[in-house]
Structures are given as structure tokens and as C-alpha cells.
Specification:
This protein has about 375 residues and is α/β, with parallel strands linked by helices. It has eleven helices and 19 strands. The strands form five sheets. A six-stranded mixed β-sheet has the order 6-5-4-1-15-16. Strands 7-8-9-12-14-13 form a six-stranded mixed β-sheet, covered by helices on one side.
């Protein structure tokens, strides 16, 4: 069975101030053409179809167009909701849409209920594990402590239990939206850490033939059977080195995997430039970036006059301007933002306690802070979904 694995469309998202809807539509066109030209048997979309719980109308219309075009090809599609999606909204009319061969899996309770497709060698069971917010699904799975590994392990127990009831030789594919240990994150992914832990081990998924992951935006192979497709378009300059693609996976009769990448159309390359303004404007080796989307980090000791206007004369698609003046080691005149760079909310809060009190929090206080951050993040998730 030939499977096209994609994820993290983020329909409705912009790249800095650039509207990406046209590029997203072009990607949908490439996906549909690939399904047709490469004789794909099934499409899997591993979450974050939309960029937010209540997407703009134009994004919903593009999603509707994608569903119609996929249904017209008569190629089954399995989709799950991600942490950016409203699972309830995305799952509206799932039963009706399923009659057209588009199978939406947005409920944690259906983790052990697969979409079963067949080829010349027998059945393939597709299990959809939508993004599982631990605080919201721990009761569904009967786990005592809300954590990503616990709820995913419980969901996979249901998958393996169902698979054990099926005829010998039934192959299996799991779609999941999660941060798996060994994956490389980028700046454009929303933090999903609980209790200071965001990643789960790949071993959670043992026992199935292929795991189609979503959430991380870089295409990655964690094991031969566990892969991220990555997002089809860049959504931050941290993705400048990404090759945007989908996985074309041939699932053999014996469960073997043969996978290759299908490139996605990207409107412009990304470039991250760093140096003094005059050097960036004069360097001949930067000519190759003149048509790229540019993030420029200026290191001039004194902020130059009209830096964006001057940069745009040479690099007309400059979108981000960062100032990082060259300073001597230990210089106290360092910006607050630079002091906080790379530090998470928990670390910032602990530093604040130490600054105010003179000593940092003890183990119990660190737990209190962590629980507070987890509770706020879970509450924000509930509020966003309920809007």
C-alpha cells in the first residue's frame, strides 16, 4: 500500500507579515497532483490542519476545497487533530464526511478504533491518535498522573489490544501528534510541555508497522518506522535549513517500509544574515539571498540610521530585523530580551524568585510553579476550544 504522509498544514497562518494562503493553496495542489501521479492508495494528515482553534473563513474554504479534491480522487484520507486545532470543530460531521472517504479522527475515545483499508495483500489498520492534552484526557485513559508519556502509552495499549484481535498479517499505521524524543524542534511550534516534560520516547509506539507523526516542523526519521513529515511550508526563520516535503511510504505485504521524500513548493527560500549593516549591503557572496525572505541580525555597536529601508534596497523581501550589538564579554548593558533568550517560563519564574528573595525556590516550590504553569496552559487550551 502506498501512503502519502503529511502534517502541520497550519491553514490560515502567516509568515511574519506575509499572507501564506496562496502558498498553502499551491501546496494542496501539489498534494493532489502527487496522489494522482504517484498512484497513492491512502493519504494521512498527522494534525495541525489549521493554525488556531477558530480559523479564518478563507482557511476553512481552502480546507473544504482540499477535502473535495481528495474525495474526487477516490483515495481514502485519514486526518487527526493537532494541538493547534479544535478537535471538536474539526470533527464536526466526521461521520458524514467519512462516507466520502475522508476519515477524521479527533476523539481520544476512538484511539483503538481504526480505519481499515485493504490492498491485494490484506488489511491495513489506520489508528488515529489526535493530540492528547494530558490534563483533558487522563480520565479517559485511566492514568493517575497527567503526562504525555502516560496518556500516549495508554492510547497505544488500546491500539495493540485491538490489533491483537485482527487476522494474522494485518498491517498497522498509527497517526500521532506529539513531540517524540530525538526530534529536532523549531521556533514555530507551540510548547506542549507538562511538568517540564514535552517529549515521549519512540518506544511508546512499538508494535506497529509505521508511525506517521505530526507537530515538529522539520522532516525527520527517528527510526525506519517512526517519521515526521514536517510542515509543508516554513513558519519561522528557524526553519531556514529545512527541506519541506512529504513522505511517500510503500508499506510492503510483510510490513516492510520503503520511504522517499516528495518536495513541497515553497514561495521563497529563507536566509538568516548576521553582521554589520554596511558589510551586509556590500558583501558580494550574499547576492544569492537577494530574492529570499530575509532575517537580518545587525551587530553594529550603535544602531544605524534607517536600517530596514537600507536593507530592503538590496534585500527587498526582508521581513525581520534583529539588533545584537557587539559588546565586550561581561558588558552589563545587555537587553532584557537577550538575557531571557532560550529560557522557558519555569526558569524565568525561578530566576525572579531568586532575584526578589535572594535564594531560589526549593524542590516543593519548583513543583508549585510547574503545576501552576501546567494549569494555566491547560485552561488556555480549554478556553480556546470552547470559543
Amino acid at each position: 500500500m502506498r501512503i502519502l504522509h503529511t502534517s502541520d498544514w497550519h491553514l490560515g497562518r502567516s509568515f511574519h507579515r506575509v499572507n501564506m494562503l496562496g502558498a498553502q493553496a499551491e501546496f494542496i495542489g501539489r498534494l493532489v497532483a502527487t496522489v494522482r501521479e504517484r498512484e497513492v492508495d491512502a493519504v494521512v494528515v498527522a494534525g495541525d490542519v489549521y493554525d488556531r482553534a477558530v480559523p479564518p473563513l478563507a482557511a476553512v474554504e481552502l480546507f473544504d476545497d482540499a477535502l473535495h479534491r481528495l474525495a474526487e480522487l477516490d483515495v481514502p484520507t485519514v486526518m487527526i487533530s493537532g494541538n493547534h486545532d479544535s478537535a471538536r470543530r474539526l470533527g464536526v460531521a466526521a461521520g458524514l464526511i467519512g462516507r466520502a472517504g475522508i476519515h477524521l479522527r479527533t476523539s481520544a475515545s476512538a484511539a483503538g478504533t481504526p480505519v481499515t483499508l485493504s490492498d491485494a495483500h490484506g488489511d491495513v489498520a489506520f489508528y488515529g491518535l489526535p493530540y492528547l492534552e494530558p490534563a483533558l484526557v487522563k480520565d479517559e485513559f485511566g492514568v493517575e498522573k497527567a503526562g504525555h508519556e502516560a496518556v500516549l502509552a495508554a492510547a497505544m495499549d488500546r491500539v495493540r489490544a485491538d490489533l491483537a484481535t485482527r487476522p494474522a498479517g494485518t498491517r498497522s499505521v498509527v497517526l500521532a501528534h506529539a513531540f517524540v524524543t530525538g526530534g529536532e524542534p523549531s521556533d514555530s511550534e507551540r510548547d506542549i510541555s507538562v511538568g517540564g516534560v514535552s517529549a515521549v520516547p519512540a518506544g511508546v509506539f512499538d508494535g506497529v508497522d509505521y508511525v506517521a507523526l505530526g507537530h515538529l516542523h522539520g522532516s525527520q526519521t527517528l527510526t525506519e518506522r517512526v517519521r515526521y513529515s514536517g510542515s509543508p511550508l516554513p513558519y519561522s526563520f528557524s526553519e531556514a535549513d529545512h527541506r519541506k516535503s512529504m513522505w511517500l511510504v510503500d508499506l510492503g505485504a510483510d510490513g516492510s517500509i520503503d520511504a522517499g521524500r516528495i518536495d513541497c513548493p515553497v514561495p521563497r527560500p529563507l536566509a538568516r544574515l548576521r553582521g554589520r549593516l554596511d558589510d551586509l549591503l556590500a558583501a558580494p557572496d550574499l547576492a544569492r539571498h537577494e530574492e529570499a525572505w530575509v532575517e537580518a541580525t545587525l551587530t553594529d555597536p550603535v544602531r544605524p540610521a534607517e536600517p530596514m529601508a537600507r536593507l530592503c534596497e538590496r534585500f527587498p523581501h526582508t521581513l525581520s530585523l534583529v539588533f545584537a550589538p557587539e559588546r565586550a564579554p561581561g558588558d552589563p548593558d545587555v537587553s532584557y530580551a537577550r538575557r531571557l533568550a532560550g529560557r522557558d517560563d519555569q526558569q524565568i519564574a525561578e530566576d525572579f524568585v531568586a532575584h526578589v528573595r535572594g535564594t531560589g525556590p526549593d524542590a516543593h516550590e519548583r513543583t508549585v510553579l510547574r503545576d501552576a504553569f501546567d494549569a494555566v496552559r491547560a485552561d488556555e487550551t480549554v478556553r480556546e476550544v470552547a470559543r
